[in-house]
Write a structure and sequence with these properties.
Blueprint: H1 3-24, H2 29-51, H3 56-91, H4 93-114, H5 117-147, H6 149-171, H7 173-182, H8 189-227, H9 233-243, H10 249-265, H11 269-299, H12 303-344
Helix pairs in contact: 2-3, 2-6, 3-6, 3-9, 8-9, 8-11, 8-12, 9-10, 10-11
Length: 364
C-alpha cells in the first residue's frame, strides 16, 4: 500500500471519529458553537486593536463588551415593540382553532354534496386523525422546548457560558490557529493552508450575506404586513427575519402564522390572498435575487443540497445541526471540489493524461 493510501485512511478515520464524538456530546454543543461563530466574526476586530498596540486580552474584552452591549440595545429596543404583538398573537390561538374547525365543517358540507356518505366519513376520520397527530406533535414540541432540562440548560449556558467561551477564543485565536497549523502534515502544508483560506473567505462571505438577507426580509415583511393591515405584523416580520438564519424555516413559519392571523382577523379570502401575495413576492425576490447574490455566490450549493443538509443536520445534531448545516455543508463542498479536482488530475481518472488539466482549479 502507498503512503498516500494510508494518509487517506488516516484522515477519513479522523473525520469519522470527530463526527461520532460530536454526536455523543450534541446536547451541550450550542454555547460552544455560538461562541466559535461569534469569535470567528469578531477576531479581525481584535487583531486590528492589537495592531494599534492594545494587548490582545484587553482588546478581546473590549470587543466582547461592545458586542454584548449592541445585542442588549437591539433586544431592548425590539422587545417593547413586539411584546404586545406577541401577546396578542398568542391570545389569538383559540380563535384560530375555531376558524380551522369552521372551515373544516364547510369542507365537510361541500364534500357531502359531491361524494358518497361512506367516503366522506373515511375522509373525516383520516383528517381528524392527522390533525390530532399534528396537534399532539406541536404540543409535545413546545412542551419539550419549555420544560426539557436540556433545553433549559442550553438557554442558561447560552447566556452564561457563551460569553466566557467567546472571550477565551478571541484572546487565544492566533495561538489556536498557530497550534493547529503546527500539526498539519508538512508535505501538504501549502495545500491545506490554501483550502483553509478559501474556506475562511467563503464562511466570512456567507455570514455577512446571510445577515443582510435576514435584515432585509425582516424589514420587508414588517412593512408589507403592516401596510396590509395585519395585526402583529411587526412581531411576525422580526420572527421571519430571525428564523431566516435557517433557510426555508423563516418564510414557511411566517406564511403559516400570517395566513392564520389573516383568516381569524378578516374572515374573507381577499385579504388572505393579499397576505399570500406578499409572501409569494418576498420569496421570489429572496430566491432569485437576495440569496443567490448575497449568499449563493459565496457557498456554491444547489438548493437541493441545502435542504438535504438541513434535514441531515437536524437528524444528527438537533437544533445545533440545523443552525450549522449550511456553513458546514459549504465547507464540505469546498473540500469535495478540491478532491474531485485532484482526482481529475490523477492517473486514476485518465491514465493517458496524468498531468493537471489546464484551467481546472479546486474552487470552481
Amino acid at each position: 500500500m502507498s503512503a498516500r493510501f494510508y494518509r487517506a485512511v488516516f484522515w477519513i478515520a479522523v473525520v469519522v471519529a470527530v463526527f461520532v464524538a460530536l454526536g455523543l456530546i450534541k446536547a451541550i454543543l450550542l454555547p460552544f458553537a455560538a461562541g466559535f461563530v461569534i469569535s470567528y466574526v469578531l477576531a479581525p476586530l481584535v487583531s486590528r486593536l492589537e495592531d494599534w498596540g492594545i494587548r490582545r486580552s484587553l482588546g478581546s474584552l473590549l470587543v466582547l463588551i461592545v458586542f454584548l452591549l449592541a445585542v442588549a440595545v437591539v433586544v431592548g429596543l425590539l422587545v417593547p415593540l413586539i411584546q404586545t404583538q406577541i401577546v396578542q398573537l398568542i391570545a389569538k390561538v383559540p380563535k384560530l382553532v375555531d376558524a380551522v374547525k369552521y372551515e373544516t365543517g364547510n369542507l365537510m358540507d361541500l364534500l357531502k354534496q359531491h361524494l358518497p356518505a361512506d367516503q366522506v366519513a373515511k375522509f373525516r376520520d383520516a383528517l381528524a386523525g392527522k390533525l390530532g397527530e399534528a396537534t399532539t406533535w406541536v404540543a409535545s414540541l413546545f412542551q419539550s422546548m419549555i420544560t426539557s432540562s436540556i433545553a433549559i440548560l442550553n438557554v442558561v449556558s447560552l447566556v452564561v457560558v457563551t460569553p466566557v467561551v467567546t472571550y477565551f477564543l478571541l484572546r487565544d485565536w492566533d495561538l489556536i490557529v498557530a497550534k493547529v497549523d503546527s500539526y498539519l502534515p508538512r508535505p501538504s502544508l501549502e495545500t491545506v493552508r490554501g483550502q483553509a483560506r478559501i474556506i475562511s473567505d467563503m464562511l466570512a462571505g456567507f455570514i455577512h450575506g446571510q445577515a443582510l438577507v435576514c435584515l432585509i426580509l425582516a424589514i420587508y415583511y414588517s412593512i408589507a404586513l403592516t401596510a396590509a393591515g395585519l395585526e402583529s405584523s411587526l412581531a411576525l416580520g422580526v420572527l421571519i427575519g430571525v428564523l431566516a438564519i435557517i433557510p426555508i424555516l423563516g418564510a414557511t413559519t411566517g406564511l403559516v402564522l400570517s395566513l392564520a392571523v389573516a383568516a381569524s382577523q378578516y374572515g374573507t379570502w381577499t385579504e388572505i390572498f393579499i397576505v399570500a401575495g406578499i409572501f409569494l413576492f418576498g420569496q421570489m425576490v429572496e430566491a432569485n435575487i437576495l440569496t443567490p447574490k448575497l449568499v449563493g455566490e459565496r457557498i456554491h450549493l444547489h438548493p437541493v443540497w441545502v435542504i438535504f443538509a438541513l434535514l441531515a443536520g437536524g437528524t444528527l445534531f438537533g437544533f445545533v445541526g440545523v443552525l450549522l448545516a449550511v456553513p458546514v455543508s459549504a465547507v464540505i463542498g469546498v473540500l469535495a471540489r478540491f478532491a474531485l479536482a485532484r482526482y481529475r488530475r490523477s492517473a486514476i481518472y485518465d491514465p493517458r493524461q496524468p498531468e493537471p488539466v489546464r484551467g481546472l482549479t479546486p474552487y470552481r
